[in-house]
Predict the structure.
Amino acid sequence: MITAQDIAKLREQTGAGMMDCKKALEEAGGDAEKAIDILRKKGVVKAAKRTDKISAEGLTAAKVAGNFAVAVELNAETDFAAKSDAFINLLNVVVETALAEKPTDPAEAMSKGDLQNKFNEAVMKIGEKITLRRLASVQAGDGETLGAYVHLGGKISTLVLLTGGNSELAYDIAMHVAASNPKYLNRELVDPALVAKEMEIASEQLRAQNKPENIIENIVKGKLDKFYGEICLLEQPFIKDEEKTVEKFAAESGATVKAFWRFELGEGIEKKSCDFAAEVAEQMK
């Protein structure tokens, strides 16, 4: 006979729902170990059924370990799930696995260690699709310094790679990247099509103001400089000393910024609106 205590114990062990635990115990003839296997298998199936769901909530993370660093974005379907202990624990496992195994992309990371099983266990507990959406891994060479920063409890995570400098400077610049959201390292890397578009817009605005053609070129150059100062990390005013650019501030410490990575939760994901009643009905399937 399966008792309420048996069901409660299995629920505590697995994090699965009460009815799922009851059915698994019945199917397993009361054998708790078999019931756990049944729930794990159902968890995998459940994860597969939810592949149409958009995972737009979650957390990001970034961490430096010696001369290696990683940044990741782990997504769930709801903010409630992303705040759960099971999700946060999985995020930590992802980060530590990435630091140990040094994968170059999410697919490779998922093949390392026991990570896929950890995902399956988390899906079973949480009941939502979980996705390792992005991963950046960075190896620092001789004379290079890594910095990581996590903002708003995981809403934004950044990495920077410096030539020279120290960990404090790298951390400060990583914090700047989180706050100022640069799109490019320097103006040489900006998409030429974007530059041409900005020049065209600025020129048309000036012509609409009846500015003489012979001075439009100089005004457009000034507008482009301002544009670069907004989107290029090296030309942005440094958040801790806005009288200096990031490039100048780093140079005063004998460093240059070589690269940066910035993961903001859910950027680029188009969230679907859904009917709440339909969502509830789907969850009950």
Notes: The first strand starts at residue 57 and ends at 65. The longest helix spans residues 213-231.
